[in-house]
User: Fold this.
Amino acid sequence: MNFTQNELIRYSRQMLLPDLKEEGQLKLKQSSVLVIGAGGLGSAALYYLCAAGVGRIGLLDFDVIEESNLQRQILYQTSDIGSDKSKKAAERLHGLNPNVAIESYTILLDSNNALDVISHYDVILDGSDNLPTRYLVSDACVLLDKTLIYGAIFQFEGQVSVFNQLLKNGSRGPNYRDLYPKPPPPEMVTSCSVGGVLGVLPGIIGSMQASEAIKVLTNMGTTLNGRLMIFDALDFTMRFLNIRANPDNPVSGSNPTIKELIDYEIFCNSSLGNGEEMAIKEISPLEVMSLLEKSAIQLIDVREPFEFELINIAGLNIPLNFIRENITLIEKIRPVVVHCKSGQRSAQAVRLLNQLGFDNVTNMHGGLLQWKKEVDPTIRMY
Assistant:
């Protein structure tokens, strides 16, 4: 018998499906999936892959649980705050389905370890939230001939696709670089921690990713290979964009130039898109603290008012979208330092102010997150 009595009961509703049956369930049991990122997308995907009976699941996340995660990362509870995501996620999944082997990695995935980790799994599910990791994982999957289940979210919109899938003719489907050959300029990329996200959205998109992974593992139905699904939760619409393999793709094209993993932080952060110089003046939090003690600068916080109320280091609160209408409040004589949570919004503010004729404006590098590391580790971030 390929299943225990308990497994037959547990998976009975699934095995009643005419397209799955016992044969499909056995394929799931004999398969493995690596989920990169145990956050919003990963929480939903991991839950359903584990419940569905995928035999071996790897989960990779180096982060710790914060209170602001709990609005969308359903694997965790209030009592878990401060714990490693990978360890708590593994505990929850084992409690959900003890028949599944759970392997957790509390590491930062990079070009030195990605090939080794990814090589041990049949399908890779990307639940990461940054461009360097997305390009790293995609390139690794192409080099290792692995299918990648892609997902991304921002505010009310989510995306899902299946990349590099093995097709019936033995070829591979399009990959991430066929959709996005090069990353956009860093200042154009806004994370969920800056732009926000509807809590249920990662649950919806992560569940779709799990569904696509199950279909790939069981050879069931039609996947999103060659298509990008874009879901808008605000007006509940879906659009589909066709993706075609690019012969000039640097990893999988006719004459590939990338044959090993590269430094993706440099690759993503050096892209300026339109070729124009986009450098701005920056200053470290330690330098800012020294100047504040001397009252030598005007400090401006461009976060939203509710964020300013949560935590601030004094200064004048002018949200990014209200810079123009409050331009008279910004000094032109002494130096002005602009900051936000991570340094993204403040970088946009500095560029705007430069365009408006201010040459005395500097960005605090890394924002309050870096301030916490360099100046005051006791502040409670959100």
